[in-house]
Inverse folding.
């Protein structure tokens, strides 16, 4: 499964390098099968602007609520990220800039299980 996600910065302030640029990401299915199946990860999502992170991305992951998080395989996480990004109205992204140069979604991804082997 391959998916392409596009993000567009609509900032029109003079001097902003990212103003009006398109950024394309290609996501390929990368679930690596081990003895117990695909490795699982925990993802926590938050939102922010040029001033920093200001809130959890409440509609991301395992339902709305205090915590914007989920645990899953790389494929499941990719589908959840695509679903969340597709649900963001342009007007809300503009409003959440709160007069700064940009709005962002931050994902923190950590292995769900302890890594038992040493690198190298």
């Amino acid at each position: 499964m391959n998916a392409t996600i596009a993000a567009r910065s609509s900032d029109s302030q003079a001097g902003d390098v990212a103003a009006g640029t398109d950024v394309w990401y290609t996501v390929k299915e990368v679930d690596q099968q081990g003895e117990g199946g695909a490795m699982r990860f925990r993802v926590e999502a938050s939102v922010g602007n040029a001033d920093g992170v200001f809130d959890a991305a409440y509609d991301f992951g395992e339902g709305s609520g205090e915590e914007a998080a989920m645990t899953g395989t790389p494929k499941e996480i990719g589908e959840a990220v695509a679903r969340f990004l597709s649900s963001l109205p342009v007007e809300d992204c503009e409003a959440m800039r709160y007069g700064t140069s940009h709005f962002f979604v931050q994902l923190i991804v950590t292995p769900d299980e302890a890594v038992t082997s040493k690198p190298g």
Summary: The two ends are 30 Å apart (CA to CA).
